[in-house]
Write a structure and sequence with these properties.
- The structure is a homodimer.
- By secondary structure, chain A is of the alpha+beta class.
- The first copy, chain A, is about 20% helix and about 30% strand.
- Chain A has helices at about 5-20, 30-35, 40-50, 85-90, and strands spanning about 55-60, 65, 95-105, 120-125, 135-140, 155-160, 165-170, 175-185, 185-190, 200-205, 210-220.
- In chain A, the strands form 2 sheets. The first copy, chain A, has a 9-stranded mixed β-sheet.
- In chain A, a hairpin with a 3-residue loop joins strand 8 (about 175-185) and strand 9 (about 185-190).
- In chain A, about 30% of the residues are buried.
- Mean pLDDT of chain A is about 75; it is low at about 70-95 and about 110-115.
- Chains A and B meet through helix 4, strand 3, strand 4 and strand 11 of A and helix 4, strand 4 and strand 11 of B.
- Strand 11 (about 210-220) of chain A pairs antiparallel with strand 11 (about 210-220) of chain B, so a sheet runs across the interface.
- The structure holds a DNA duplex (30 and 30 nucleotides).
Chain lengths: ~220, ~220
DNA sequence: TTGACTACCATATATATCTATGGTATATTA
DNA sequence: TAATATACCATAGATATATATGGTAGTCAA
């Protein structure tokens, strides 16, 4: 069982992540682009290396990569499978829900949210509030004061109203952002939790502000 | 939300199963062969139908099919409850694990960890790393600089070693704490991420420091 | 009876994707 | 010092895969 080089490990990591997130392995071109290489041959070299060392299985045709062993993620069984007992299966059903990650939300300057299901997470229902919860990936640093980091996943409960001080996801025009919500008589404020960013203020007559939902949870994954 | 024909349902079913079993969506040829058709155009017809009715998303390139809605997976019933289908249960099992919350961990002055299972959470296995992960509830404010708050749940991967800078859960004497880990030639440092707390330094001859595990995730629930 | 949809077949063509080959430069090991 | 492996670049060409187009036949509703 040969050791991997750093670069090979990175490539394997990318393939495993891509498989996990998008549901399909990447093409060679996608790997090349991810690492900002110019030559497809570079990808071939790495794949050959990974296959030779027994970490990757290749097939012919498009997207025919299979991660055999992932140095960073260990599976329960030797063969990479996991066989849940009947009991375990029964316990799981009814206690988890499949929650979609519908895109990114800006914690910083508002960006367009990409509203399509990128991946799905099973979440314990204890974490959920009400129906139709969904997840958004945080992009940006404006809510670090509330301990929400770039890359965190926010669990959102859809609702059109919010209390002052609650953290919400809001739509202004067609831009989505997450901020702390404050409503005054004459205006609505969306306050970041980072002195480097400005509060966004909306007054009557300005463009519409729509609250998409309230942040009811945070998920973070360290690499 | 248009109804599917029987044939369309079968095709969608095949695509979903293929994705689940092989990890990749099928090619049009594979779909054709599965149904013993001779013409690839037949597959195209069905894919068009499924896409038009909103059950399937297509991309350009090979194996770019994504099942959006699976008619066999059940959504909340009228009474608000949720009856998972056999399919959904199958998908869930194997994708979640039951993770125990084994007590509290100090992010502040070390306190005794109460090592008994208080509750259990189902977590998506994408969140886990390796075996025997467990959860600890954070007590204290010393890791707020790393955006870990009082009341958060830490997902721990048991391991006895750690890299410099990683956030770990460590046992010193019989007190458990979470800190950033640094090993130097002559000493081990457990650094908080809050200027109000002091770094804990262990030298040779001092009492033992044992790393219980590494923090691989964070879960937070707002009330 | 016309139109719209389904469910097939058949073939040509475009393009996405992978393979093959050969090059450079730099480490590491024998 | 030669041999080997890594880590990249560049390009030609093969092949896997998808799209476009145009058939036939059956069903169903207007």
């Amino acid at each position: 069982m040969d050791k991997l080089t750093d670069r090979q490990r990175e490539v394997l990591r990318f393939i495993a992540d891509h498989q996990e997130k998008r549901g399909v392995p990447p093409t060679l071109e996608e790997i090349r682009d991810h690492f900002h290489w110019r030559a497809i041959g570079t990808v071939q070299d790495h794949l050959r290396g990974l296959a030779r060392k027994g970490y990757l299985k290749r097939g012919r045709g498009a997207r025919r990569l299979e991660v055999l062993r992932d140095p960073e993620s260990v599976f329960p069984d030797d063969d990479g499978t996991w066989t849940p007992s009947y009991q375990e299966r029964r316990r799981a059903s009814g206690r988890v829900s499949l929650i979609p990650v519908v895109g990114e939300v800006a914690a910083g300057s508002p960006i367009l949210a990409v509203e399509n299901v990128e991946e799905e997470w099973f979440l314990d229902r204890k974490l959920l509030r009400g129906d139709d919860n969904f997840l958004l990936r945080v992009k940006g640093e404006s809510m670090t004061g509330a301990h929400i980091r770039d890359g965190d996943y926010l669990l959102i409960r859809p609702q059109a109203v919010a209390e002052n001080g609650e953290i919400v996801v809001a739509l202004a025009g067609d831009e989505v952002t997450t901020k702390r919500f404050y409503r005054h008589r004459d205006r609505i404020e969306l306050r970041p939790e980072n002195p480097a960013f400005d509060t966004i203020v909306y007054r009557r007559g300005d463009e519409e502000v729509e609250i998409i939902g309230k942040v009811v949870g945070v998920l973070r994954k360290y690499r």
